[in-house]
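User: Before I run my own analysis I want an independent prediction to cross-check against. Here's the chain; please return only the structure tokens and, at the end, one sentence I can use as a sanity check.
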Amino acid sequence: MTPDPLPPRLPATDLTRHRRLREQGSLDRADLEAILDAGFVCHLGVVVEGRPLVVPTVYGRDERRLYLHGSVASRTLAGGTPVCVTVTHVDGLVLARSVFEHGVNYRSAVIHGTARRVIDPEEKLTGLRLLTEHTAPGQWSYARLPNRRELAATTVLVLSLAEASVKIRTGAPEDGDGPDAKLGLWAGVLPLTSAWGTPVPDPALPPNTPVPGHIARREGTRHG
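Assistant: Structure tokens:
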């Protein structure tokens, strides 16, 4: 049976309620999904032996869950404990007339929940496929799939997308109609973009090994 889809509006819980800069907050699940789809590296936060620890890792998703990848040896991926996952995209620097009004145009998502270690081999393969296809679409069917030993050496966590906080900041500085506007200083936004470069072949490749189309097509396209 296919589980019911998550509601289109994000719930405002004690962990996700926007308490500061509420105008930048969003309860639209579509905004959460767009932020997740625009990136592939998240930061996983967890308390380990009484100390906070945050590590970067890759992720993939379906309509209800976020899958995270890591080594079996990683202390942060023990599973069954509360975690916090963040994804952030910086779109530009907001340079105002005063330092106090400087800021950043950004898109961010913070996901809260209890991560579960994926044990079932079929679900683990599903999670790894989502991770791979999210990071490099087309690579799952191109590269060799994991064998039994590699699967045993890989930890996959799954986290519900039910509870999340989203914030987005766009636009110009906010001091254009204040006293500092009379200073005659330049103010505006310095955009930041990133794009995929030219694929660099492994030196161990035989000469004239072609770049697969699903990789070559990404050259010059925007990331984020």
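Sanity check: The chain is about 15% helix and 35% strand.
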